[in-house]
Amino acid sequence: MKCCLTLCGNDIFEQSESRVEVKTVLPSRFDGKNFLVSWNRNGEAIFHLPCWQRLLKSKPTTNYKKLGAKRSRLNSLELVTKQEKSLIREAKKTAEFFDSAEQIKKEASRVAGWLLSAKHCVVFTGAGISTAAGIGDYRGKSGKWTEMDHEQVSDKIEQIFDVQGPSPSERCHPEKEPHKAGDEDQEDRGDEGVDYEELRPTFTHEALCRLVDLDLVKHVVSQNGDGLHGLSGISKEHLSELHGNVFIEKCEKCHHRYERTFYVMDDTGSQYFEDIEDYGKSEVKKPRHAKRCDTCGLSHRTGRKCEQKGCKGFLKDTIINFGDNLEEEILNRAFEHAQQCDLMICLGSTLTVTPANELVEVIQKTGRLVICNRQKTDYDDDCLPKFDGIPEAAGCRVYGDCDTFIREILKNVIGDERLKSWEGDRPQRIVSYEKNRCQKHSD
After folding, report:
1. Are 382 and 346 in contact (CB under 8 A)?
2. If DSSP codes are grouped into helix, strand and coil, which group holds residue 127?
């Protein structure tokens, strides 16, 4: 891969060089001529870390004559056009950072040492550990919320470039309309279009299960509702799923919980209430069992009833939507482990969602904090030494893919040969996963 800064253009060596990947919003008519960055047609670009840092320091100007004189000097990045600066600002919001392979190996060796000596290690996971399984994240350069933000700024970019772009009806993101009957098949696995029953644990999921089995990780706290931690083999006693699980439903009446092999949610009921809220009408037929939730405005009912003798209460999913309160028992258990924790490893999360991120604030007072994520977080500085001159009190901040980082940690813990042997057993684990997932469900 080559650096997209035109004044560089050199290869990026992943083994020894850190890099940055970004995505911006390009105007509808963009030729890319006379720009500092060789933007790809989809708005993406990749840079050496130092090249990206220099690019961020450039200042916008409308004095093109002055800019031409400056640009004639080799490696001059002092000035950029106002138009390109607007693209750089949007790109900055999406920046994903990747440490060199050498740096990741070095940090993984340190963390493995801490893990082996820790009394109570807790791992905190977010959407970033499931992207390799096929689930999109939220704040990555191609994340769900990033794409929504880009849609909102596209008109502004057109104006800055003084381009008469296509009308809203002609754009590739037309104005949404209420869902029509028959659309349920496309929506029956949530708004990400993910078939959860087809997902299988990633290397990170499996490695964490291995570390739990070795009694090195005492508890896993997750913001993910995909059920992959449980499928990997982590028991309920070692797992707190703060935002629920798409394979678990519970009774409204007696609160008995059911762990299923199939996706339990009824997305049609939620889509009906979402359409009513957004458009005042819906062409989706409201299911008879659907009931609007007072806190999130959607429907949690799954369409099934409790199987406990004499109950027959409606079952509802356990997913926490925006506005819903977290289940108190699960949240309290997570905090209890955080308070005992002397090493917390955060994987694949920007740590922005409350109250889940408050667990990180608990560990700051008593133990080491390790964060591995592609994007920056508000807690990055807390991974630095807490006291001047005492590096032993430091944590660790790694930028990159969780699978890469965790593989290096596991290799340091169990050794290269045992790691290769364990990786070779993946086909047998896949067979077990298949048995615990129903491919299709007719209810």
Report:
1. no
2. helix
CB 339 within 8 A of CB 117: no
Q: Which two tokens stand for residue 143?
A: 């994340």
Residue 22: strand, helix, or coil:
strand
Residues 18, 261: Cα–Cα separation, whole Å: 41
> Closest Cα to residue 345, out of 383, 376, 388?
383
| pLDDT greater than 50 at residue 311 | yes
Cβ burial 38-49 (10 Å sphere, 16+ → b, else e) = ebeeebbbbbbb
**Contact in structure between 400 and 204 (CB atoms under 8 Å):** no
**What's the Cα-to-Cα distance from 157 to each of 27, 32, 171, rounded to whole Å?**
6, 14, 14
The pTM score is: 0.86
Sheet arrangement for strand 368-372: 239-241, 217-222, 121-125, 343-347, 368-372, 396-398
Closest CA to 146 of 158, 157, 137: 137
Residue at token pair 């339990």:
264
Please check whether residue 23 is in contact with residue 4, taking contact to mean a CB–CB distance below 8 angstroms. no
Q: Judge if the upstream peptide bond of residue 355 is cis by omega within 30 degrees of 0.
A: yes
Query: Encoding tokens for residue 214?
Result: 């070795």
Q: Which of 58, 51, 53 is nearest to 2 (CA)?
A: 51
| H or E element at residue 317 | strand 314-317
Relative to beta strand 239-241, strand 248-251 is unpaired
Report which residue type is found at 11. Answer: D
Residue 165 pLDDT: 43
Between 207 and 354, the higher pLDDT residue: 207
Ramachandran angles phi, psi of 373, nearest 5°: -165, 155
**What pLDDT shows up at residue 188?**
43
Structure tokens at 323: 């506005």
Are 128 and 347 a contacting pair, CB within 8 Å?
Answer: yes
Q: What's the CA gap between 60 and 86, in Å, rounded?
A: 9
Q: Is 390 exposed, middle or buried (0-12, 13-18, 19+ CB in 10 A)?
A: exposed
